[in-house]
Design brief:
Radius of gyration: 18 Å
Shape: elongated
CATH architecture: Sandwich
Number of domains: 1
Number of helices: 1
Number of strands: 8
Distance between the termini: 66 Å
CATH topology: Immunoglobulin-like
CATH superfamily: SOR catalytic domain
Helix content: 10-25%
Structural class: mainly beta
Largest sheet: 5 strands, antiparallel
């Protein structure tokens, strides 16, 4: 019995980070700072388990998928879910009317729910 429990515990240590899933973007608000600069407030949900598996960034993508800006998340948010982080001074060309926000985590990479938003002009 001890060997079975030890084996299960060992297996759980390696498999449990996979259960945290992918990062979902659940809300985005945008404030226009001036003609071509914006502040993005992005709310993410991810079952961070600690340093081995956590939401480590979110990105703003242009209409053709180009990364316009990245907000790096410096630490896990195990006890703060969902959580919101901001990025100011994001330059977006005047001809871009809509962007997509996507999340990234340290195990799965990109995935989960993305959100498309129209820019206030």
């Amino acid at each position: 019995m001890k060997h079975i429990l030890a084996s299960l515990l060992f297996l759980f240590c390696f498999v449990s980070p996979l259960f945290a899933g992918e990062v979902d973007v659940i809300n985005v608000t945008i404030r226009q700072e001036n003609a071509d600069r914006y502040q993005f407030n992005v709310t993410l949900r991810h079952n961070d388990t600690g340093w081995k598996h956590y939401a480590d960034r979110w990105e703003i993508l242009g209409p053709k998928g180009a990364v316009l800006a990245t907000r790096v998340l410096a630490h896990p948010h195990v006890d703060e879910q969902p959580f919101t982080r901001s990025l100011s001074g994001v330059h977006i060309a005047p001809d871009i009317r809509e962007v997509t926000i996507r999340g990234h985590d340290s195990v799965h990479g990109y995935g989960g729910k993305q959100v498309k938003v129209h820019l206030p002009r």
